[in-house]
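Section 3.1: Structural characterization of target chains.
Under the original work plan, the team committed to producing a structural model for every single-chain target entering the pipeline before any wet-lab resources were allocated. The record below documents one such target. The sequence was received from the expression subgroup and is listed exactly as submitted; it comprises 149 residues.
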Amino acid sequence: MYVERLQDLSIFYWLKAQFAAIPQVKVVDGFPTENLEIPSVSIEAEDIDLEPYEMGNKKLMRFRLWFIDFFATSKAQRDDFAYKLINELENSIPVYDYNVGFPPSVAPPQLGCLLPERIRYRKVPIDPELTGKTYFRGEIYFRALYSIF
């Protein structure tokens, strides 16, 4: 697998671990398009930026942009999800080599980590007349630098 796919898998399992203590929260890989269950949290990768960082060297720094969307039953639950994730994103996110297998049967080795930066939270207004359902939505997006220790 490409390192970008390993990053996607690692951040998805990291997100699942963040909500493991709240079993009613469904964690989805990709923005939910059908059968939206509330509460739920989704992760979607967006841009990849390769930026030079040293003159005379062709090696590039790898930045990725992710969106975490969450759908909650109340304003308080939405904000709790946001505050939890903002605090957790201040730490690095380990990237594992899932080529050797997936947990829990295998403990894959760590290849590197994602160092989040530019973390932003925004509340997304929902019009119940348009959705037919009352819920509260928020979105965190962040840019992360991939580092091999």
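The chain has a mean pLDDT of 89.
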